[in-house]
Amino acid sequence: MPLRLDASAPGFEKEFSAFLGRNRDTDENVDRVVAGIVADVRARGDAAVVDYTAKFDWPGITAENMRLSDAERSAAAAKVPAAQREALAFAAKRIEAFHRALLPKDVDFTDSTGTRLGARYRPVDAAGVYVPGGTAAYPSSVLMNILPAKVAGVRRIVMVVPTPGGTLNPLVMLAAEIAGADEVWRIGGAQAVAALAYGTQSIRPVDKITGPGNAYVAAAKRRVFGQVGIDLIAGPSEILVVADRHNDPQWIAADLLSQAEHDPSSQSVLIADDAAFADAVVRAVEVELETLDRAEIAGASWRDNGAVILVRDLADAPPIVDAIAAEHVELAMEMAEAEALSQKIRHAGAIFLGRHTPEAIGDYVAGTNHVLPTSRAARFSGGLGVADFLKRTSLVACTPQSLAALGPSALALAEAEGLGAHGRSVSLRLGR
Ligand SMILES: NC(=O)c1ccc[n+]([C@@H]2O[C@H](COP(=O)([O-])OP(=O)(O)OC[C@H]3O[C@@H](n4cnc5c(N)ncnc54)[C@H](O)[C@@H]3O)[C@@H](O)[C@H]2O)c1
Ligand SMILES: N[C@H](CO)Cc1c[nH]c[nH+]1
Ligand SMILES: [Zn+2]
């Protein structure tokens, strides 16, 4: 059974903070292993990438077949049935449109002193997108990572994907084709991240690396940060559903399991204001689990990391929602109430409003990005977007008159900091 908490009972604060403090990370010696792999790839380049790939994924790898040819990519993509092809294209169109709307505008104005100030957004030159291999390879995640880079104007998009046993995933290849990956390399793990960051004899380095992966991939991304930029490190998925008693318990149960089925470490939380309704949802979860393909994963996640929190009134939910700062928050109630409640929520990766907006729509086709902050990172971060592939360059232009207006204060501060050359570069221009 998932944890059950009553927000109005004595001792709630203590139990709730223990719940928030639970560690769902599972890695131990991963960082040490990854440090060795990254150093080896830096030292030996292709040869190291080939050795690790042969060991972990596919013995048939060579420096010559690491990069997939256009023919290999399109042959694999061609295997995708029409219905899935259409669904991917539909999703891509919507994701691209939403991310176009996210493009920031350049800033350029002249202030009252006559100084021109501005900011220009320009894309990174090259982005590397990590796509997990095996059964965890989600074609939707390929779209969610590559399309924002494309919209941002990144010229070279490099996808890496391990191909266990040498097998290409047709849907992943099709998603790469639709989204517009310029290069696809059949490599993964820490060795792929290191190759993207530092380059090898055959792989040119990139400037930014994004995309989910297992603990080795996450540790490698943390390690190469600084050499390249990285996106947020997205951990196991999370869903928090705030639901009133007028919902169908089965709908809510399915929503809770939609993220539980990703990973045994995923987290699903229900906040309800009616104990009988909450009990009905818990029973419905058990019924749903009976027919779910991934029942073992979803069931473990629900039992070990799930929680049901009872509140007196749903108006009491926002501080609890903010403390959990979940990746996904569903507000399952009438739309006007959902809108009003959403205004009071400050920390969430994404909010889904109303009874007819299941989180899964955001995973695939809404158009918003499904790479979102987990493990309470929504307190300080949003999801992946075009801004992740852009850098802001600021612009300053003084005239002799505006320099005269700004200069004296700059001189005073340069003097206070004991930086004489700074002061001279201003005072000489002021004729002092
Ligand atoms: N948050 C998201 O949006 C999202 C989406 C998809 C997948 N994921 C996550 O991605 C992960 C996918 O994991 P995966 O393992 O199937 O694929 P992966 O591509 O992340 O990792 C495979 C690589 O791990 C490396 N590896 C495996 N065992 C190793 C060892 N003992 N030492 C060193 N390296 C080792 C190998 O290099 C291998 O190529 C899961 O954790 C899943 O939850 C998250
Ligand atoms: N919900 C996941 C991120 O938490 C993303 C995803 C991919 N496919 C289905 N779901
Ligand atoms: Zn999902």
From TrEMBL:
The keyword NAD applies. Belongs to the histidinol dehydrogenase family. It is an enzyme of class 1 (oxidoreductase). InterPro entries: Ald_DH/histidinol_DH (IPR016161), Histidinol_DH_CS (IPR001692), Histidinol_DH_monofunct (IPR022695), Hstdl_DH (IPR012131). The lineage of its organism: Bacteria, Pseudomonadati, Pseudomonadota, Alphaproteobacteria, Hyphomicrobiales. Pathway: Amino-acid biosynthesis; L-histidine biosynthesis; L-histidine from 5-phospho-alpha-D-ribose 1-diphosphate: step 9/9. It comes from the Bacteria. Binds 1 zinc ion per subunit. It comes from Reyranella aquatilis. Gene3D superfamilies: 1.20.5.1300, Nitrogenase molybdenum iron protein domain. CDD domains: Histidinol_dh. PANTHER family: HISTIDINE BIOSYNTHESIS TRIFUNCTIONAL PROTEIN, HISTIDINOL DEHYDROGENASE HDH. GO terms for molecular function: histidinol dehydrogenase activity. This is Histidinol dehydrogenase. Its cofactor is Zn(2+). Its EC number is 1.1.1.23. The active site is at residues 327-328. Substrate binds at residues 237, 259, 262, 328, 363, 417, 422. Keywords: Amino-acid biosynthesis, Histidine biosynthesis, Metal-binding, NAD, Oxidoreductase, Zinc.
